[in-house]
Amino acid sequence: SERLCPHIFIMSSFVFIVKGELHRNCSAVVRPADLNITNNATWCDWAPFGQDNYQTLFGVLDNSFLVAYAIGMFFSGIFGERVPLRYYLSFGMVMSGLFTCLFGLGFYLNIHSLGYYAAIQVMNGLMQTTGWPAVVACVGNWFGKGKRGFIMGVWNSHTSVGNILGSLIAGAFVSSQWGMSFIVPGLIIICTGILCFFFLVEKPEQVNCTPPQHHEGDETESIVNNTSQIDINAYGSITVEPAEVVEDHTEAISFIGALSIPGVVEFSLCLMFAKLVSYTFLYWLPLYISNVAHFEAKAAGDMSTLFDVGGIVGGITAGLVSDYTGGRATTCCVMLLTAAPMLFLYNYIGQRSIGTTVGMLLLCGGLVNGPYALITTAVSADLGTHESLRGNSRALSTVTAIIDGTGSVGAAVGPLLAGVISPTGWNNVFYMLITSDLLACLFLSRLVYKEACGWCRRVPRARG
After folding, report:
1. Which GO terms describe its cellular component (predicted)?
2. 181-219 b/e with 16+ CB inside 10 Å = b?
3. Which of 27, 269, 414, 464 is deepest in the core (most CB within 10 A)?
4. Does pLDDT of 176 surpass 90?
5. pLDDT in tens, 28-52
6. Residue 249 above 80 pLDDT?
């Protein structure tokens, strides 16, 4: 049986929940009688976020994390192919938890320096780049291509579960002691990193399990390589010795070599725009709900988790459909095209009632995060075990890092653009998101055409 340490990715940048507490409407807050203040409008804000340019300062924090994550991701995959994944992943999780706790300590140490919080975000972004290439490589080592879309779609729900848990944990403390909104999740990921260090099994061969079939031609080779040695001794008794675990001595793929794998560039560029949409929602949805629907910070954070709940269903659905049809690119393209008008509708009718808000958040979450989940999991694993690699298993981490690193560029740009555009109106922010969805589809057009041609060749022609 497969044994793989569950990795729940809890997003360390909880600023998107705490934003409403760092900059509040102080006129609506009851002021303590013994508090001597000089500014009635900003007395309850956490300096330096009480200034008029607070949205720009929040953008600095967001992009400190996301830019560091995007840059570090391109190097992370290279290290992941050359370092034991168990050590690499455990180190990254413990250090991510440490820096997350340090951010929260700023509340208790009364730190009001933007440089301090930005530096913590940079280091956290770099540490978290160890996570995704490592976990995708581990899961890719355990499961073959046959049902990979569904299996990795279910597995990928841990990202949405992490976002939901992060939002709920942060929301539980945000109104009283926002420092605990960082410290508690930081301690959780440290403990999870320790569990991974002791229990993570990187490959099935390490526990005498049969490796998966990544291609149709792997079946015979797998049987030959894993056949037990049967010996008959002088007394006529039979002894069975398990096959020796063959170590992989192939050279890790280079960065340029990974880029040359067919489909890597197209899916990377598609993910850049798909992730732009997803992360803009992640960072700005609570503030949007708070401003438009007039929810409190905690209620807005709780409501925003519905977007991730929809993402769980969308990721599993995308995996199932792509397994059945064999069209990863077409599945992504159809979902992205459908997401565009749904985003438009959410902006115009999504806040009319609680029922409408819940339904539209679930629907938009599924359509936006479904392609994102499929590309970062099953597609990355498919390309990392592409037949052009001729059995080289040391490409999964690098390919995953290239795809997710390119996507992280969009994740960094999206919240920044939202911060710049939002003062002109939320309608313009949604127009930007819709345009990004359509651009993501455009980059997949060649692969969609290729998949459609493959389906046409498989359809038997009617005889006249």
Report:
1. endoplasmic reticulum membrane
2. bbbbbbebbbebbeebbeebbbbbbeeebebbbbeeebe
3. 414
4. no
5. 666 665 556 665 666 677 788 877 7
6. no
pLDDT of 418 reads 87
Q: What tokens does 428 get? A: 């313009």
Q: How far is CA 422 from CA 2, 130, 293, 317, 438, in A?
A: 47, 32, 16, 32, 21
Alpha-carbon distance values, 399 to 45, 215, 256, 447 (Å):
44, 18, 10, 18
pLDDT bracket for residue 439 (50, 70, 90): very high
Q: With H, G, I as helix, E, B as strand and everything else as coil, classify residue 45.
A: coil
Tokens at residue 110, please?
């009364």
Cα separations in angstroms, 228 against 171, 240, 241, 393: 55, 7, 6, 23
Residue 229 parent element (H or E): strand 229-232
Alpha-carbon separation of residue 344 from 74, 250, 291, 353, 433 (angstroms): 34, 49, 18, 17, 9
CB count in 10 Å sphere of residue 17: 30
Q: What is the dihedral of CA 421, 425, 429, 432, to 10 degrees?
A: -80
3, 79, 210 from 200: Cα distances, Å? 7, 18, 17
pLDDT band of 447, cuts 50, 70, 90: very high
**Lookup: tokens for 273:** 């725009």
CB 327 within 8 A of CB 451: yes
> Can you give the C-alpha Rg of the chain in angstroms?
24
In three-state secondary structure terms, 238 is strand
CB 238 within 8 A of CB 231: yes
Alpha helices in 53-113 (DSSP H): 54-80, 85-108
Q: What is the largest CA-CA distance in the chain?
A: 97
Cα–Cα distance measured from residue 347 to residue 310, given in angstroms and rounded to the nearest whole number: 17
Q: What is the mean pLDDT of residues 196-221?
A: 75
H or E element, residue 239: strand 238-241
Do 365 and 310 touch, CB atoms closer than 8 A? yes
Residue 416 has a pLDDT of 82
Q: Cα(425)–Cα(444) distance, rounded to whole angstroms?
A: 31
